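Example protein as discussed:

>
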Amino acid sequence: MTFTIRTSTSQDQEAILALWAQCLSYQSSIEHVHPRQPLEVGHGPLSARLEQTWADPGHECIFIADEGRRTTGFALVTLASSPCDGRIETIYVDARHRRRGVGRALIAAAVRWLRERGAGDVCVEVIVSDQGAEGFCRQVGLRPVLVTYIASLTPEDRSMETPPPDVIVVAGAPGTGKTTVCEALAERLASPYLDLGRLRSMHLDRTWQRMSAADEAVAFENLVAMVRNYCRHDFRPVLVSDLTENRLEDILLDLTDLDVRIVTLVLDDPALHKRRVLDETRDSGYRDWEAALAWNQRTQQRALLAGEHRLNATRLSVDEIVDQILSHVA
């Protein structure tokens, strides 16, 4: 079925509100930092926002897409002063009617409306985790320029007022995802990341065939010294991974003057764990899956160390693991 794009009127209020509620519900499901709450259709701020737009047609406009008797999408466009001359405040297409050109047609109508009023540029806000919306914006010619960082200020969230720990150790048996998680944490926090295995590789064979207790001790001493130096220069938190089981207690003893938190990853699916250890794409020469599974089992059975949190990572994505780690150490 073909669609048409037209300027909305107050007669379209119910249809637009229904779509807008869908939009906000979807956004609240992916926007974990500052979720937008779905609003009851026909009431509250959404209705007031529509009435405001229709009362000022020279400054704002809402375009809608009709397919037969059904309204399948809308775009709210407004003249602005910053950061662009024009702003597409909201654009949404019913999920059942996407990939038919509706969104692109709504964008085109909004752009024409802005051009007619002298706007020199246009901007759209997109939730970072909404990859579909980001891809769509790139397809229609929009490019990312500014990024807005948001933090919750609810009474129960004091993360911005609490200093970070000095050190976060991500522990666990080989194959539990320590390296991948630490790399994601380092990117999220812009923090230094020290991997004991990589320090060992400076003087050891990465096939793990020439590892002695003395060689490992040198690498661990270097790691502790580097952690202290980063903290002395106020790089916090320092991220540490790939410690052997006994080194978890050692790092707590060697850094008693620092705030050290340990998050230990475990897996409850032995078959999955074995596949991960044997995966040739892993950046490690370690392939002893039986030892890795035994290590993972011991980790789940032993008592927690001071400042340690155990996290089952079996069914979590990397982002979900990072979110849980940051929530725990806050």
In short: The domain at 167-329 is CATH 3.40.50.300 (Rossmann fold). Residues 213-232 form the longest helix (20 residues). The two ends are 52 Å apart (CA to CA).
